Amino acid sequence: MRNLVAIPIIILTVILQSAIVSRLPLLAGSADLSLVVLAAWTLQDGVETAWHWALAFGLLVGFVSALPFFVPVVGYLFIALLARGLQARVWQIPLLAMLSVCLIGTAFFHAISLGALKILGASLEISNALGWITLPSMLLNSLLAIPVFTMMRDLARWVYPPLESE
Amino acid sequence: MKNLFSRTLQITIVFLVVAGILALALGGFFGPVSNAVTRSLVGAQTWFSSRFVALQYLLTSSRDVAAMREQNIRLQAEVAELQAQVIQLQQQAAEREILAALVDFSRTHSEDTFLAAEVIGKDPSPFLHYVIINRGSNDGVRKGMPVVTNQGLVGRVTAVIADAARVQLITDPASNVNVRLQNAKTESSLVGSLTGDLTLELIQQNVAIERGDLVLTSGLGGGYPPDLIVGQVVNIRARESDLFQQASIQPVVDFNRLQIVLVIVDFTPVDISPLIPAP
To answer: Using CB atoms, which residue from A17, A28, A122 is nearest to B196?
Structure first.
């Protein structure tokens, strides 16, 4: 039942993203709160709803944004996949995994956004996109990573309380 | 009898001694001694007085400090409340200023019907320059309607739901606006970019353009009404090897501070795409 907390959190995250975070640019880039929240949630131990969150974020951001609908869906699903892979196989330090997911995830998300927009005919220069948007966005996402990770850890402990050892 | 004589003698002697001392004192013979005694007395009194005042302060100060702290807290709360009021009033004044300018603009453009809308968000993707406004199909907003401020052109509505709409800014990389240069009397195409810079393209090489030239919508293509102010030419790039000149445009609208915009609701965009021959 506590899993239902995802609904207000995802909606609130997208609202905050659109109303506040997107209006605080660094050069032309901005942080992606949805990406950071999703990465932090997926990296928590015992979380079983990461794919649901990814899909919900993808659909909601696809609805709000003028990006082609599949871009946020594919992007967030990839981020969940990446976080799951890093958590299960490689990293034992969650904060390092969090930063890695944020950096790689941002790069991937921007790459598919750029590719889709170029296919649709927008005049975009990759060097400009990298220097003015992607690198500043990576920095902003990294700054958000640790506080968001801490909050999501508390939330995960509330939703999935650790089993007491007998 | 002898006792009575003796007592009278004693009184007389004491009287004479006292009178003599008084006479000497009045004559100023005891000045140094008197000063020394007085100074000692005053010093002692000062010491006692200062200790008493200190003790009194010590005993009563706790009550005063508590009262002052209470007063301080009350004043701080009052200051915070007043500061909040000041901020609120400043915000209202700024909004009123914007609204007054928009009303002036709509009065001077009485041929159009405007609908004021508040900007409530921005597209989550940094690659796109879109804003979200709090007016939708319930308010009569339709896809393709131009959006302006009192300063000039903002963009056009690209998606509408019941109570909100998405507006593509003219700075968006996919935006393309047909414009004309007021002084050069030539037409051109204005495109946006990732960084929000505006560029005029497809200006023929033989056209003389200058910095400061005003750029207005031309109305060609049916996407925007004519004669809306867009910006001014700030930089010209003309190379002999190129087919066309380019010019950088400084928009008249500050897109970073968009708060309230006007939707031109009586403008029906013309979709000319069926008339464009397929490649």
So the answer is: A28
B125 and A CB contact within 8 Å? yes
B128-147 pLDDT per residue, tens? 999 999 988 888 899 989 99
Helices (H), chain B: 2-26, 31-108
Residue B165: list chain A partners with CB under 8 A: none
Give residue B210's pLDDT band: very low, low, confident or very high (50, 70, 90).
confident
Query: Quick check: ipTM above 0.90?
Result: no
Q: How far is A163 from chain B (nearest CA, A)?
A: 38
The Cα–Cα gap between B12 and B18 comes to 10
Could you tell me the pTM of the whole model?
Answer: 0.73
Tell whether the model's pLDDT for residue B262 goes beyond 80: yes
Comparing alpha-carbon positions, the chain B residue that sits nearest to A26 is B126
- A112 to chain B: closest CA residue: B127
The predicted structure's pLDDT at residue A166: 46
Q: CB count, 10 Å around CB of B161?
A: 13
CATH number of A2-159: 1.10.1760
Q: Which residue of B194, B198, B259 to mutate against A (max A Cβ within 10 Å)?
A: B194
Higher pLDDT, A138 or A90: A138
